[in-house]
């Protein structure tokens, strides 16, 4: 029986490249001249540091633009609240990996409500979709892409 998996992943190598590009861009930007600002990547967490909250927002926008250029879905970004320590502001940005349980249940409900003849099962942090026809699976993929659940989904393990 044809099947595929619905997952939510990010490429950490591309995230690292985007952080490096943002760091280089930070050195050339006029609005950051003479300002102590930094962007660092530690495992799956990006840390933004600057002297003002406005500069943190600008850094986050620069990072988002570089992530888009690198093909990383920016909906996976999960920014924490701003933190102030002395005269410096900081913000941690984590990346959501895997389909969490509430989102998986919403996705299963949407697929079942669409009356497409497929079976969906939740397997940890991914969903397995099986059906008799390849066309039904492709219709399910289209449905998932159009669903706005605040996450980017990828499809892998397509078996015919």
What report would you give on this structure?
The chain has 160 residues and is α+β, with helices and mostly antiparallel strands. Helix content is 38%, strand content 30%. The chain is built from four helices and nine strands; from the N terminus they run E-H-E-E-H-E-E-E-H-E-E-H-E. It has helices at residues 12-28, 53-69, 101-113, 134-146, and strands at residues 3-7, 38-42, 45-50, 77-79, 83-85, 88-95, 118-123, 126-131, 154-159. The strands form two sheets. Strands 2, 3, 4, 5 and 6 form a five-stranded antiparallel beta sheet that branches. A hairpin with a 2-residue loop joins strand 5 (83-85) and strand 6 (88-95). The chain is elongated. The N and C termini lie close together (7 Å). The mean pLDDT is 89. Belongs to the YajQ family. Pfam families: YajQ. This is Nucleotide-binding protein V6256_07455. Keywords: Nucleotide-binding. InterPro entries: UPF0234-like_C, UPF0234_N, YajQ-like_sf, YajQ/Smlt4090-like.
């Amino acid at each position: 029986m044809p099947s595929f998996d619905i997952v939510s992943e990010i490429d950490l190598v591309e995230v690292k490249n985007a952080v490096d590009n943002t760091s280089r861009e930070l050195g050339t930007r006029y609005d950051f001249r003479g300002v102590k600002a930094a962007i660092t990547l530690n495992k799956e967490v990006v840390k933004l540091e600057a002297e003002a909250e406005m500069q943190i927002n600008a850094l986050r926008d620069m990072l988002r633009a570089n992530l888009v250029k690198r093909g990383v879905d920016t909906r996976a970004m999960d920014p924490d609240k701003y933190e102030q320590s002395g005269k410096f502001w900081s913000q941690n940005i984590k990346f959501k990996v895997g389909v969490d349980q509430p989102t998986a249940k919403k996705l299963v409900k949407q697929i079942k409500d669409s009356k497409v003849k497929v079976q969906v099962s939740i397997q940890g942090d991914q969903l397995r979709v099986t059906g008799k026809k390849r066309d039904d699976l492709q219709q399910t993929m289209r449905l998932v892409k159009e669903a706005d659940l605040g996450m980017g989904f990828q499809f892998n393990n397509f078996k015919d």
